[in-house]
Amino acid sequence: MGENPRQSSDPHNEEDLAKYLLERISNLESRNMEIREQVRQLESEKRYIEQQKIRYEREIRKLKSEIEQLRSPPLVIGTVTDVVDPHRVIIRSSAGPRFLVRASNFIEPDSLKPGVRCTLNQQSLAIVDVLPQSYDAQIYGMEVIDSPRETYGDIGGLDTQIMEIQEAVELPLKKPELFAAVGIDPPKGVLLHGPPGTGKTLLARAVAHETNAHFLRVVGSELVQKYIGEGARLVRELFDLAKQKAPSIIFIDEIDAIGAHRTESTTSGDREVQRTLMQLLAGIASTGSSRYRFPRHREGLRFSRSIPRS
């Protein structure tokens, strides 16, 4: 009987088949690794795109909110004149009339006090927000940031005046406990008067150099304004800023620009100058013992001490 051809095996064919299968498996594993790496890269790109999408959506919401704010009507500026209860206050709008309005629930009741500026809704005039206290730009320009370089040693022939200045101004600032022990109040205002060029401004600059107080310098003519009440408002804001930065020194140069005699004035300009002077005197009378003023050139005002310079 002859042999069955199917039962016969060729060793060369089996080796070639095994080698082929191994190569095929190796290629498939390599391809599998490449695909897995591609999947990881795609997943990383997907996460990055999702983060970018979230960021862009957040920016879109922010821009939409800004657009809505720009489209919203402007708010009216008002001033609180009286507080009826925690949710109802009497305000005076910028136009002049007074209204009884309600405050927003988001506003702290303690922040609503008479004299506080606030923003009002145009339609209901309800209080939307409370504004911080602000001063006129001229007031901030009056503050001297850098301490003057003049000292008492730069002044000659004014030993008596320097001693009086030290007693009335420098000593209360540096050693206020001495006045408390004696039971007297320090001077609130000092008047330096005399002809021009006799060292009044130099004395004030020397005092500012020797003390660590805030120094506010203003020329009297700057307080004379065109419109009614503007000069008095500047004086009030000047004294409010001095109280806020206490201890402080206000030096008013050329005070005779507003220090005219009280007369029966017929012109509105004279009356406005007198209003400014009265507000200045009221500010000096209402200040605490740690703030001092140095006007010049005019006698007869309500100052604690008058220091002549001839």
Summary?
The chain has 310 residues and is of the alpha/beta class. Helices cover 43% and strands 17% of the residues.
What does this structure look like?
The protein is elongated, with a radius of gyration of 40 Å. By secondary structure, the protein is of the alpha/beta class. It folds into 3 domains: 15-48; 76-130, Nucleic acid-binding proteins (OB fold (Dihydrolipoamide Acetyltransferase, E2P), Beta Barrel), CATH 2.40.50.140; 137-308, P-loop containing nucleotide triphosphate hydrolases (Rossmann fold), CATH 3.40.50. The protein is built from 7 helices and 11 strands. Helix 3 packs across helix 4 and helix 6 (230-244) runs parallel beside helix 7 (268-286). It is 43% helix and 17% strand. A hairpin with a 2-residue loop joins strand 1 (76-85) and strand 2. The strands form 3 sheets. A 5-stranded antiparallel sheet has the order 3-2-1-4-5, with no helix packed on it. The protein has a 4-stranded mixed sheet with strand order 6-8-9-10, sandwiched between helices. Strands 7-11 form a two-stranded parallel ribbon.
